Amino acid sequence: MIILGIDPGLERIGYGVIRREGSKLTPIAYGLIQTPRISVPDRVRLIHEQVLEIIDLHHPDSIATERLLFTVNKTTAMDVAKALGVILLASSLRGLPWAEYSPPEVKQSVVGNGNADKKQVQFMVQRILGLEKPPKPDDVADALAIAITHAFRSRIVIPA
After folding, report:
1. Which of 39, 43, 77, 111 could form a disulfide with 70 if both were Cys (CB 3.0 to 4.6 A apart)?
2. What is the pTM of this model?
């Protein structure tokens, strides 16, 4: 099973593609989608196009995103929600099942502690995926952690 994990944002969107074969997890690709400081409609179009490119290149079996939890900055929450909307549109257009996980769920799955800090998440993502160094920036590490969480919690089985 191939999983695309996405840490949504408007300016920076982390993504990570991993393969689950039995209990083994292997990184396929990961990186950052960055949008320039242009109008929001143009930014979300760019996000949509780039997510479709990632989907079409790697052919994931499912997509997982981080659940948006904002309590302080409502403006940021709305902008991230716009980006998440076009990410979900890309998923839907390609017929992919979607799941979302809260930040504490991701930290619990990857680190074993729902209150883990960013460095702990990066370290465990590196260990679980056998990477030479911790993935950076945080958006990329978070996207890989989301994909790992989905691999651990998913009941989807794709026949070989």
Report:
1. 77
2. 0.91
